[in-house]
Design brief:
By secondary structure, the chain is α+β, with helices and mostly antiparallel strands. It has helices at about 55-65, 65-70, 75-90, and strands at about 10, 20, 25-30, 35-40, 45-50. The chain has a single domain (about 10-90), classed as 2-Layer Sandwich (Hypothetical Cytosolic Protein, Chain: A), CATH 3.30.1230.
Length: about 90
């Protein structure tokens, strides 16, 4: 008997470049107006980028220009600070 394997979507972390299942990543999305939000549902419209649920990846992604480049925007310092302060909610232990 053949087992049918289900396709698992893969995404690449902007910071560490590791490929992982989409469910193990956190999606950041550029919304209209240029602000960056965390997309907990994974379905918000807008340009998205993924980060591992690892605090080091969040720091690297938010403090370098990689996220700006991927999302094709310039993240404001206030938006960066808000995301970094709230990253604990989205980082897996």
């Amino acid at each position: 008997m053949k087992s049918i394997s289900r396709h698992i979507p893969q995404r690449t972390c902007v910071a560490c470049r590791q490929v992982k299942p989409k469910r193990e990543m956190t999606r950041l999305v550029r919304v209209s107006g240029g602000a960056i939000e965390v997309d907990t549902s994974g379905r918000k419209p807008g340009r998205g980028a993924y980060l591992c649920r690892n605090i080091e990846c969040w720091r690297a992604g938010l403090m370098s220009s990689r996220l700006d480049y991927t999302l094709r925007t310039t993240i404001t310092s206030e938006n960066r600070e808000w995301l970094m302060n709230h990253s604990k909610e989205f980082v897996g232990e």
